[in-house]
TrEMBL record:
This is DNA-3-methyladenine glycosylase II. GO terms for cellular component: protein-DNA complex. The keyword DNA repair applies. Its EC number is 3.2.2.21. It catalyses: Hydrolysis of alkylated DNA, releasing 3-methyladenine, 3-methylguanine, 7-methylguanine and 7-methyladenine.
Amino acid sequence: MRIEAAPGGVRVEPCDEEIAAEAAWLLGVPLDLDGFWAWARGEPVLAALAEPLRGYRPPLVPDRWEMLVTLITAQQVSLRSAFAVRSRLIERFGTRHGAAWAFPSRARIAAAAEGEIRAAGLSRRKAEYVTGLARGDLDLHALAALADAEVVAAITAQRGLGRWTADWFLARALARPHAWPAGDLGVRKAVSFFYGCGRELDETEVRAMGERFGPWRNVACHMLLAGARLHG
């Protein structure tokens, strides 16, 4: 629903079903947090995070196209740089609705020249990846019906998209329980902080560590990241 200030109180407008579904996804509603925290009582590190992270819900991304473009912009740069590039991309190619902007559609990016995309701050390679994805034939809606390994294969078959991208897509665009982005630097640091005994674990070790979380890997990943942020 939309809640706005109004004379003498607030105005409440109910949302339609499509908007409600997107809002639920953004708030991480599909993730079974009650089940996760019940399971986590037997995992000391996570059990200790239950109280500090009370009420935290890992956010998901309802738009799969937006998720992949976001991941491309975030490859091998700081979060601040990635955010700045995405903001420029949205302002140049998105649709404005009042004070907000809608993310650029796949068709809009497909119609743009690579030089226009680069003008938003993307490197030449990343501009090629984004336009290639936009103009390609990857069916983003069909990915939801595939097994995890098939999703990874479909995404990594695209130019410029690797395992890191596929793992985060599984985690945040599809909310897959076993998603575990072991190649992500932040994930490796978080897992190392809590389980590395003072040593930074490599990707192979972190990927193997994911097995201990079973079908709770995706939520565990987000909680460990959030927990590491609490510790500075």
